[in-house]
């Protein structure tokens, strides 16, 4: 029996090989060879974030049970402590210099094709689950028995996306996410990971939910209003919905808020046929405009889209600008990104592949921006402006956001998780208007007239 020597490899590479246990020996070798080359660095983005603000030298193209016991959480943390975080590995070791965004983009290009990810997708379900923040919502034995079904594949993807993003945020903040498992008596449940009052993040939440049951008439109405022709039996529509959703509110007003959500719906009609579709997107909400950040963020998303169709980015970018629009204010919520919904063509496999590519961008499109502005100084006035902009964020989520409205209309939804997207603090000033020509006025002009960043 061949012996694989791990001691000289980085922890990330070691964990990548371990996760592939049980696969063909050649696969193990491939994993060792292709584990992120940046993982040899001892520090994530060493020194990053110390670039001065505006540096011109950077060039780049819901009721639930209480949470798991402390012992249970610790057990899963021990199992996962050496787990390779693929998305983090794509950006580990990027130095704080003029090329750090370029290298992040290059890592994004390489990551989807590397052997580590192939091993993860083909490996044993239980082995993959050990790297998650918590055991999956669906019992592992059930996932094993239907390994090839889209419901299982999507649940594994959203669990991995949650773990990758949480660990990347813990690395920069130094804090730890509270993991709260909850159950929905009507069917399913979720895992809410929340970090509050950290060093960098005032509130960071990354939720996974997997729910099933029957759509209420109100929820079915929302589906029909979007053109879905749904035929229930005796007024009932069995459904399954799952997704990962995150909103991050940093303390520093020069670090943007980010949001992403990727989800899958499946509905069974009276004749037994199933309708399915995917939705999601990633968008950025800065308090102040930094054009380099905007180009990096949109460029990373565009690369992921271009791998699948040249029209995806331009179409989904426009969709994002239209969707995240606060009509009563006449402005977008932020500088956008991509957004799509009801996506069910050309076929299920291709759409799922596209969603995977998008999910893998959440770390490399955001973490370089966080590190870049980590030590930016700010004034009381800039903090006040952040609070005002957060107020706009709250207005959109409560008045227009489709996910919030669907959640509130679904029996047994967990309100704490639905409203996790709201910041701890916000501000509403009567008739607030920034002076012309100020940086505060600059972002308002962009929000009223969306920009093509790439």
From TrEMBL:
<dbReference type="InterPro" id="IPR018375">
    <property type="entry name" value="Coprogen_oxidase_CS"/>
</dbReference>
<comment type="similarity">
    <text>Belongs to the aerobic coproporphyrinogen-III oxidase family.</text>
</comment>
<dbReference type="GO" id="GO:0005737">
    <property type="term" value="C:cytoplasm"/>
</dbReference>
<dbReference type="InterPro" id="IPR001260">
    <property type="entry name" value="Coprogen_oxidase_aer"/>
</dbReference>
<keyword id="KW-0560">Oxidoreductase</keyword>
<keyword id="KW-0627">Porphyrin biosynthesis</keyword>
<keyword id="KW-0350">Heme biosynthesis</keyword>
<comment type="pathway">
    <text>Porphyrin-containing compound metabolism; protoporphyrin-IX biosynthesis; protoporphyrinogen-IX from coproporphyrinogen-III (O2 route): step 1/1.</text>
</comment>
<dbReference type="GO" id="GO:0006782">
    <property type="term" value="P:protoporphyrinogen IX biosynthetic process"/>
</dbReference>
<dbReference type="InterPro" id="IPR036406">
    <property type="entry name" value="Coprogen_oxidase_aer_sf"/>
</dbReference>
<dbReference type="Pfam" id="PF01218">
    <property type="entry name" value="Coprogen_oxidas"/>
</dbReference>
<comment type="subunit">
    <text>Homodimer.</text>
</comment>
<dbReference type="GO" id="GO:0004109">
    <property type="term" value="F:coproporphyrinogen oxidase activity"/>
</dbReference>
<protein>
    <recommendedName>
        <fullName>Oxygen-dependent coproporphyrinogen-III oxidase, mitochondrial</fullName>
        <ecNumber>1.3.3.3</ecNumber>
    </recommendedName>
</protein>
């Amino acid at each position: 029996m061949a012996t694989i020597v791990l001691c000289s490899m980085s922890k990330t590479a070691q964990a990548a090989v371990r996760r592939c246990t049980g696969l063909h020996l050649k696969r193990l070798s491939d994993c060792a060879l292709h584990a992120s080359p940046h993982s040899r660095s001892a520090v994530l983005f060493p020194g990053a974030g110390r670039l001065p603000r505006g540096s011109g030298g950077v060039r780049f193209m819901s009721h639930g049970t209480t949470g798991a016991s402390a012992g249970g959480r610790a057990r899963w943390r021990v199992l996962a402590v050496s787990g390779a975080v693929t998305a983090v590995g794509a950006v580990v070791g990027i130095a704080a210099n003029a090329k750090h965004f370029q290298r992040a983009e290059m890592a994004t290009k390489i990551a989807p094709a590397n052997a580590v990810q192939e091993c993860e997708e083909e490996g044993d379900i239980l082995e993959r689950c050990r790297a998650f923040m918590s055991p999956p919502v669906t019992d592992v034995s059930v996932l094993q028995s239907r390994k090839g079904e889209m419901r299982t594949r999507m649940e594994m993807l959203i669990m991995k996306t949650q773990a990758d993003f949480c660990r990347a945020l813990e690395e920069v903040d130094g804090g730890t996410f509270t993991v709260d498992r909850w159950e929905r008596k009507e069917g399913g449940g979720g895992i809410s990971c929340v970090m509050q009052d950290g060093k960098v993040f005032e509130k960071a939440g990354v939720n996974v939910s997997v729910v099933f049951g029957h759509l209420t008439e109100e929820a079915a109405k929302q589906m029909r209003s979007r053109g879905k022709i749904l035929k229930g039996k005796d007024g009932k529509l069995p459904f399954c919905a799952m997704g990962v959703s995150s909103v991050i509110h940093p303390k520093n007003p020069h670090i943007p808020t980010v949001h992403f959500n990727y989800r899958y719906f499946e509905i069974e009609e009276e004749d037994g046929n199933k309708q399915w579709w995917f939705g999601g997107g990633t968008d950025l909400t800065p308090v102040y405009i930094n054009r380099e950040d905007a180009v990096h963020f949109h460029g990373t998303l565009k690369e992921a889209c271009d791998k699948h169709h040249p029209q995806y980015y331009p179409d989904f970018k426009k969709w994002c600008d239209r969707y995240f629009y606060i009509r009563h204010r006449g402005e977008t919520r932020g500088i956008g990104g991509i957004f799509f919904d009801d996506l069910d063509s050309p076929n299920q496999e291709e759409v799922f592949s596209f969603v995977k590519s998008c999910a893998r961008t959440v770390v490399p499109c955001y973490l370089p921006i966080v590190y870049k502005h980590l030590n930016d100084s700010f004034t009381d006035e800039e903090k006040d402006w952040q609070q005002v902009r957060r107020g706009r964020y709250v207005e959109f989520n409560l008045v227009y956001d489709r996910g919030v409205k669907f959640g509130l209309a679904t029996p047994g939804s967990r309100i704490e998780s639905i409203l996790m997207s709201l910041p701890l603090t916000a501000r509403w000033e009567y008739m607030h208007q920034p002076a012309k020509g100020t940086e505060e006025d600059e972002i308002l002009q962009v929000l009223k007239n969306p920009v093509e960043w790439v």
